[in-house]
Specification:
Length: 88
């Protein structure tokens, strides 16, 4: 997990393993009051490729820190790049 500074609110990002639809653990300081900015589906390759922007399919799990969830897309074997704005 890394944090990007310079914007009016801190932005954090993490690369996590993909998986079946459902909850995905995200390391770092993701909480339900943060704002999910993007979720990109990335496949391995030389170079790795962005398969899709899945932001609209994901949400931060209500009442649980450190997880996002999706009910539609299986990303098993690939990775997700998750970016969020920290709660003020």
């Amino acid at each position: 997990m890394s944090t990007i500074s310079g914007l009016s609110v801190p932005i954090a990002t993490a690369i996590i393993p993909g998986g079946a639809s459902g909850e995905h653990a995200v390391p770092g300081n993701l909480t339900p009051d943060c704002a999910l900015l993007s979720v990109l589906h990335v496949s391995e390759g030389a170079p790795p490729a962005v398969e899709a922007d899945l932001t609209s399919e994901f949400s931060i799990t209500a009442g649980a820190s450190g997880t996002i969830e999706n009910t539609t897309t299986d990303t098993t074997g690939d990775f997700l790049i998750v970016t969020w704005a920290l709660a003020e």
